[in-house]
Amino acid sequence: MKGIYIFLMMLLFASPVLHAHEPSFMSNVYGREYRFLNGKWNVIIDQYEHGKTRSIYKNRKPQSNEQFYEYSFEGGLRLNVPGDWNSQLPELKYFEGTVWYARHFQVDSIENRRQFLYFGAVSYRCNVYLNGTKAGSHEGGFTPFQIEVTGKLLKGDNFIVVEVNNRRTEDAVPALVFDWWNYGGITRDVMLVETPEVFIKDYFIQLDKHQPDMIHAEISLSEKVSEQVCIEIPELKILHNVTTDGNGFAKISFHARKIVRWSPDDPKLYKVILTSGKDRVTDEIGFRNIEVEGTKILVNGKPVFMRCISFHEEIPQRQGRAFSQADAVMLLSEAEALGANMVRLAHYPQNEYIVRLAEKKGILLWQEIPVWQDIDFEDKDTRLKAQRMLADMIFRDRNRCAVGFWSIANETLPSEARNSFLSSLLEVGKSLDTTRLYTAAFYMARYEKNSGAFEMKDDFPEQLDVVAINKYLGWYHPWPVDPSEVAWNVCPTKPLIFSEFGGEALYGQSGDENVASSWSEDYQAKLYRDNLEMFKHIPNLAGISPWILFDFRSPYRYHPVNQEGWNRKGLVSDQGYRKKAWYLIHDYYMQIKNNVR
Ligand code: GCU
After folding, report:
1. If you measure from the C-alpha of residue 571 to the centroid of ligand 1, how many angstroms do you get, rounded to a whole number?
2. Alpha carbon of 174 to ligand 1 centroid (Å)
3. How high is the pLDDT of residue 11?
4. Which residues contact 414 (CB under 8 A, 6 or more apart)?
5. Ligand 1, atom 10: nearest CA belongs to which residue?
6. What is the pLDDT of residues 168-227, one digit of tens each?
7. 176: buried, middle or exposed (CB in 10 Å: 19+, 13-18, 0-12)?
8. Which of 148, 542, 561, 562 suits 504 as a labelling partner, its CA being 20 to 30 A distant?
C-alpha cells in the first residue's frame, strides 16, 4: 500500500513538464498560402480594462432611436499593424494596459479549405474575437500562435478584434522588471492562412548532429491519417516518399553525398519541397553540424570562435520594435559591418525576418526565451509558460540552420527551484531538438582572492553544452587586479562564451578615460581595451559578445543627461553613429577573422 501511496505522491508533485510534442502553430507559415492582415487597424485605448464588460468586440450599432453605444471602432484612433503602440502615439509611450484593435477584411471563397488566423507575436497577452465571438487567446510576447477559423469566417465582410494587454505580472515571462521597454501591441505580421483539409503541420529537416551527409526528416500532418509525403531537394536530386503512421507522423533518414554544408563563410541553402495530398510547402534549408569538442565549438567539424554581438528587437531611430524585412536588414547589416559571425538575439525570440536573413548572410544565432533574472521559479504555471515559449521558439526555428544555440535563461540565481525549472526546460528542449547547443547566461562569477581567479558557485552550468558569463568589469564591478592578470576558472572543461560585457557612453561625449561617471566614449573605449586584454587569458574562451550593438530603451535608465530612458551601452548610438569602442571590436574581430590573432 505504501508503495502505491509514494507513487501517487510522486505523480502529484512531479515537476510539470509540458508535453510539447504538439506545436501550437504550423511551421514555416511564410512558405504557405496566406494573405497579410497588416495595415491600419482601428483602436480603442481601454485604461480601466472595461471593454470586455461592455462586449465592445461585438461592435454594436444603434438599431432604434432610443439606442446608443459609448464606443465605436470607426472614426477613432488607428495604429499600424505590425508595430508596438508605444512608438506610434505619444500618449501610449509608457502605456501599460489594454488596447483594443479592430478591422474589417473581405473573404471571397471558403469552400473545401481550412482557414487560420496567424499572429507572429502579440505583446504580451491577448484575446481574439471574430465576428463578435471569442475565437482564441494567447500569452507570451515573442512567439507565434494561430487560431483556426474554418467555419467561422463569413463570405464577404468579416470583423476581427484583438484585445491586447501588456501589463507586467509576477507570474509572467519576463516578470515585473526587465531592462528593455515594455512594448505593447500586435508587434509582428498578422496573416490569414489557407490550407487543404489535411496539411503538413510541422516538420524538422536537419543534418545529423555529427555526420556530414546524413539528413533526418520528421513530418507531422494536421490529421491522424496515413498519407504519402514526398520530400524533394531538387538541387541534390533527392526525392523520397514516406508514408505517415496512424498519428499522421513519419520520419526518414537519407544520405546526401554531394551536400554543401552551410557555414558563416558559405551560407548555402537548399530549396526543399514537401508535398502530401493537396498540400505543398516550400522552404529554404541549410544543413550544417554544430557541436562541442572539449572547450571548442565546432561548425562542420572546424573550431569557430564566436565573434558575437547582441541586439534587442528594436530600431533605435524609430524608438520602436523591429518587425519588418527592412528592419532586419538594418540590424544585421550593422552586425555584419562590425565583423560578427554570430548574433545573440536578446532576450527573447525575435521575428522571422531577422532569423531568415541571418541564415542568408551566414550569421549564426543564439536564441533565447525571456527567463530574465527574477522569474517566479516556484510557480507551476510560470514554468509551463516558459516551457511553452521554449517549445514554440524551437518549433518555429528548428529548421533554421543559422540558429546554433538555444539559451534557456539569463542571470538567474542558484536555487533548487531555479534548477528544477531550468532542468524542465532542458527536458522540453531536448525532446524537440538535440542538434543544437544548449546554453544560458550567468552573472554570479566572483573573484576569489585565494585562487586569484573568477569562480562561480553554481552547479547548473554542468548540464549545459556551453556556459555563458555576463560580467561588467570596469562598469558594475571594479577590476580586482590588472586586466592582464585576471584569471577565470569557470567550467574549465566546457566552452565559455563571454555573453555580456561593456559600459555606457553617450555618443559624442568625451572625457577622462579613467572616470566612469564621465559617461564618455573615451572611458568606454578604455573599458573595452581592458576587457580585450583579459580575454587573452581565458583558456576555454570560445566566443565574446559585447553588450550591446545599439543603445536601447529602458524605463529604469534614469540619468537625465546621459541616459534619458536609454541604456547607453551600445557600440552604436540611438541615432546610428558608431562610438570609439565600435572600432576596437571591429579591429579585434577582423584580426580573428583573418587569423592574425
Ligand atoms: C544584464 C542584462 C541585460 C542588461 C545589462 C545592463 O547583464 O542581461 O539585459 O541590459 O545587464 O545592465 O546593461
Report:
1. 14
2. 14
3. 47
4. 444, 457, 458, 459, 460
5. 179
6. 999 999 999 999 999 999 999 999 999 999 999 999 999 999 999 999 999 999 999 999
7. middle
8. 542
Residues 6+ positions from 12 with CB-CB distance below 8 Å: none
The pLDDT score that the predictor gives to residue 21 is 57
Do residues 351 and 328 make contact, with C-beta atoms less than 8 angstroms apart? yes
314 lines ligand 1 (CB under 6 A): no
**Would you say the CB of residue 494 lies under 6 angstroms from ligand 1?**
no
Residue 407: CB within 6 Å of ligand 1?
no
Q: Is 410 in the pocket of ligand 1 (CB under 6 A)?
A: yes
Q: What is the pTM of this model?
A: 0.96
Our answer on whether the CB atom of 179 is closer than 6 Å to any ligand 1 atom is: yes
Q: How far, in Å, is the centroid of ligand 1 from the Cα of 179?
A: 6
Separation of alpha carbons 7 and 334, rounded Å: 56
Distance 424 CA to ligand 1 centre (A): 25
Ligand 1 touching residue 310 (CB < 6 A): no
The number of C-alpha atoms within 13 Å of 38 and in the hemisphere containing its C-beta is 13
With a cut of 50, list the residues of the chain below it in pLDDT: 11-14
> Residue 216: how many CB atoms within 10 A of its CB?
16
Q: Determine which residue's CA is closest to atom 7 belonging to ligand 1.
A: 470
Q: Probe ligand 1: pick from 179, 443, 475, max atoms within 8 Å of CB?
A: 179
Angle CA 513–514–516, to nearest 5: 90
Q: Could you give the C-alpha distances from 476 to 150, 166, 554, 584, in angstroms and in order? A: 54, 30, 17, 21
pLDDT per position as a tens digit, 223-281: 999 999 999 999 999 999 999 999 999 999 999 989 999 999 999 999 999 999 999 99
Please tell me the distance between residue 348's alpha carbon and the centre of ligand 1 in angstroms.
13
Q: Which pairs from 127-133 meet CB under 8 Å and 24+ separation?
A: 127/52, 127/162, 127/163, 128/160, 128/161, 128/162, 128/163, 129/57, 129/160, 129/161, 129/162, 129/163, 130/158, 130/159, 130/160, 130/161, 131/158, 131/159, 132/57, 132/58, 132/59, 132/159
Rounded Cα gap, residues 366 and 167, in angstroms:
27
Report which residue type is found at 74: E
List, in order of start, the domains of the chain with CATH numbers.
Answer: 32-194 (2.60.120.260), 197-291 (2.60.40.10), 302-593 (3.20.20.80)
Could you tell me the distance, in angstroms and rounded to a whole number, from the CA of residue 495 to the centre of ligand 1?
22
Centre of ligand 1 to C-alpha 590, Å, is 26
Supply φ then ψ for residue 178, to 5 degrees. -155, 150
From ligand 1's centre to the CA of 127, what distance in Å? 32
